[in-house]
Amino acid sequence: MRTNVARKLTTIIATAGIILTALTVAAGHSFPNISSYAQPSNSSTTTTNTPTTANSTFRSVFDTFVVPGSVGGYGAYQEHNSSSFKPGEKILLYIEPAGFSYKPMGSQYLMNFTADVSISDKAGHILGGFENLPISSIISHHQNKELILTVSLTQTTPFPPGDYVLKYTIHDVPSGNSFDILKNIVIAS
C-alpha cells in the first residue's frame, strides 16, 4: 500500500503538480495604523556585492494555510480554517519571512528564495518531494521589509485519504540561510 501511495505522490510532484508563486508588496512604503512582525527598517546603504540583512535570523514570522485565490498581498488573505483537505483540493501555504538578505545589484537589491518540500506519512516515511525549486527572485530599488511567499501544492491526482506531514524548507539564496515549516495535514472526503 505504501509503495502505491509513494508512487502516486511522487508522480504528482514530478509532473508539475506543485505550483509555486511569490508575491511582494509594500516595497519600502509605510502605511499608517498597520502593525507588522516584519523586519525593522535598515537605513544604511550598502555599496558592496555582499548580501546584507536587516536581521540575521532568517525565519517565518507567520505562516498559515489559505484559501486558493484569496491572497491579495501582505496580510491580505482568507485563512483555510483547518489542516484538513479533500482529495484533489489545492493546498496553499502563505508565509511571511523575516531576516532575509539583500544582495546589492548596482543601485538595486536582489531577494532570492528557493524551496524544498517533502511529503511523509505519520511514521516519517518520505513519500515524495522536490528540492531547490525557485519560488521568488525579486529585484527592487528598496530593501523590502515585508514580502510574502506562497507555496501551492496541487493534487493533480488526488492524495489517498490519510494523515501526512508536509515539510517546507525555505532558502534565502544570497545568505545561504534557511528555515523549516512542518505542517500536519489530513486528506479526508
Descriptive account of the structure:
The chain is mainly beta. The two termini are 19 Å apart. It has a single domain (2-27, 48-187), classed as Immunoglobulin-like. The chain has one helix spanning 2-14; strands at 18-24, 52-53, 59-66, 84-85, 91-98, 101-105, 108-121, 126-140, 147-153, 162-172, 177-187. The strands form 2 sheets. Strands 2, 4, 6, 7, 8, 10 and 11 form a 7-stranded mixed β-sheet that branches.
The top level CATH class name: Mainly Beta
CATH level-two architecture:
Sandwich
Helix-residue proportion: under 10%
Largest sheet: 7 strands, mixed
Count of individual beta strands: 11
Indicate the proportion of strand residues: over 45%
Gyration radius, in Å: 18 Å
Mean pLDDT: 77
Structural class: mainly beta
> In whole angstroms, how far apart are the ends?
19 Å
Summed up, the helix count is: 1
What string gives the helices and strands in order?
HEEEEEEEEEEE
Outline type: elongated
**CATH fold assignment:** Immunoglobulin-like
Low-confidence stretches: 1-48
Number of domains: 1
Features:
7-stranded mixed sheet, 7% helix, mainly beta, elongated, 189 residues, Immunoglobulin-like
In short:
By secondary structure, the protein is mainly beta.
SSE layout:
Layout lengths: L1 H13 L3 E7 L27 E2 L5 E8 L17 E2 L5 E8 L2 E5 L2 E14 L4 E15 L6 E7 L8 E11 L4 E11 L2
